[in-house]
Predict the 3D structure of the following.
Amino acid sequence: MTLELFSLLVLGLMCGSELNVAAFGHPVLNRQPLEAHILVRSSFAAMFGRVMPFWMAASALLNFLLLMPFVHLSQSARHFAEIAFAIQAGAVVFSVIFPVPINNRIAQWTLQSLPRDWGALEHRWMSIIRSGPPRWFWRSPCSRLPWPRIKRTSTI
């Protein structure tokens, strides 16, 4: 029971943190003057760059440890648990390959060393976060599952 509560706390806080950054942090930050925006953005990038690799790896490990007792479940329930772990492991790999290198560059920003393409780089980071996982999902074996088809009756 302790492992389950600890896992819920760690995973829940990470999801809440991600939601907070995406839904509230970035929109508020984008409305700030350039000086404040750059300083806060680089500070957050540096802090999350230090914390998130361990947090995401610990979350994936806790998720895996939670799967261990599920061997007695039905085959379909065990498959869902395995898919959940695979999605989380894929998210960790995706994060390390795509947004982390951009995040590391953003962490180095100062007002004096701001690159000319800083807006494009920031936009690319947000585009990867918003559209990378859905693209990966639909190109993965998951896209071959028998998903229900929705028949269009009219076009807009």
